Amino acid sequence: xxxxxxxxxxxxxxxxxxxxxxxxxxxxxxxxxxxxxxxxxxxxxxxxxxxxxxxxxxxxxxxxxxxxxxxxxxxxxxxxxxxxxxxxxxxxxxxxxxxxxxxxxxxxxxxxxxxxxxxxxxxxxxxxxxxxxxxxxxxxxxxxxxxxxxxxxxxxxxxxxxxx
Length: 164
Hints:
Layout: H1 2-15, E1 34-36, E2 46-49, E3 52-58, E4 63-70, E5 75-76, E6 103-104, E7 108-113, E8 117-127, E9 132-133, E10 139-140, E11 142-144, E12 147-159
Parallel strand pairs: 2-12
Antiparallel strand pairs: 1-3, 3-7, 4-6, 4-8, 5-7, 8-12, 9-10, 11-12
């Protein structure tokens, strides 16, 4: 009986998917949106404490190109860190991804703000079709040399952390 089960399992594996199929084909539409660990506003700065990281996921569809740009003093992080809410915050400097510098094309970014100050995080995507961010304050892409460019600059105010 055991041999029959093994043979049946082998035949099942043999006759099932032998070629790679895409479960998520390229979309035929264009759209822009994002999700972040701290809600981002297109008009007002967000506030976070120094020593924390901000995670942002670009969920846009149909992009021709994609780029995140950050201001000097902030850093892109590698994944695997713990962004806890207890003071003092853990040191995230071992997770800084020095290979990225201030620009990356990753869809998901983790941005570390070690010191107090005013920072910017810029999302820049290009599309073949016009897109509009449909949040509380709509933001339209602009046609530049035959390509629709969507650029959103997020303002981040990083406050000094007071350790009890």
